[in-house]
Amino acid sequence: MAKLTFFFILLTKIKNIIIYPHCKMKISDIINYLEELAPNSYQESYDNSGLIVGNQDNDFKKGMVCFDITENTLQEAIDNNMNLIISHHPFLFHSIRAVTGKTLVERLLIKAIKHDISIYAMHTNLDNVYEGVNHYMSKKLLLNELSILRPQQKNLKKIITYVPDVYAEKVRNALFDAGGGKIGNYDSCSFNLQGMGTFKANEAANPFVGQKGKIHFENEIRMEMIFPAHKENQIIKSLLENHPYEEPAYDIYLMENQNPMVGSGMKGMLNKPVSEFDFLNNLKTQLDVTIVMHSNPQQRIIKQVAFCGGSGAFLIPDAIKQKADVFVTGEIHYHDFINFAGDIFLVSIGHYESEHAIKHYLCEKLIEKFTTFAVSKTETNPVNYLY
Most exposed residue of 62, 112, 179, 377, measured as fewest CB within 10 angstroms of its CB? Predict the structure, then answer.
């Protein structure tokens, strides 16, 4: 029996699937994985990403990924004995004062709670991570040389600590493993400076080096490293576990730097320049959209493309400033087509059309890890067109 269990665990690890034969998986296990992909701290201030309904300590059965929570998608989950729904759009944005079933949101809340279904949303945090909604869109547009259009600020921190010479490598590598030292397309980034540290242990101390009551001089490395703000607890935990001192000295600072890997929209380059109409025709084919709204053509040559899934019109000035030839998004206001017509070629393809494919990406990632997930088969575009 022991050999069989060992073989089962080994087989699942080879397939890169985490399955625990003797313990049930919790919904929190799924959430922890999702928040590694797109941390909740990256969402916009108006958003409501995260666990909206349910108890994360419940056992996980089966899950579904969808674009929106509707009565149809919720019923689909119930019919298929699923107890976790992961949606791109939160169905609950604003506070409510009563739950009577009069509105759609109230009916969804009542039904989800009644059937013990947890609902988790990944909205602007999934928009803002590098490998999120916009990166998925860039693959469809066949773009390269990608970068964030409007990088976020104040989501990076720096830790400074002092480590004895002989322990510097161990501590440094531990902080790298905890998520420190990543800047753009580089990892293992740190600054190290040789110096002399002093301290005196009192009678209650248990010093790693030196004697109680005497000043001790130690050759140390001043180590500096940037890390994502949401990983602060992991960074501190790793430092304390790997630093030899009883009381490691460290400082943490909030950085004003932009984070080049987190933010709104993206830009990229086409393999070769095309005309405005060739770009539109390619766009329709690659994104499988039927209706495309655009500003007046001005015989531009399209090479650099800026884009944002969903309601991205607020990024038009950023696209112009960075000299993009075209800006593609889900929704653009009427007056934007007028005001910016001379500055950039504007293209609107519909909110649903620009983002809905992200549910397939999410489901693919989840199946790699947990297997028991499926994409909703019932949801459709809530906006209809008369051709």
Answer: 377
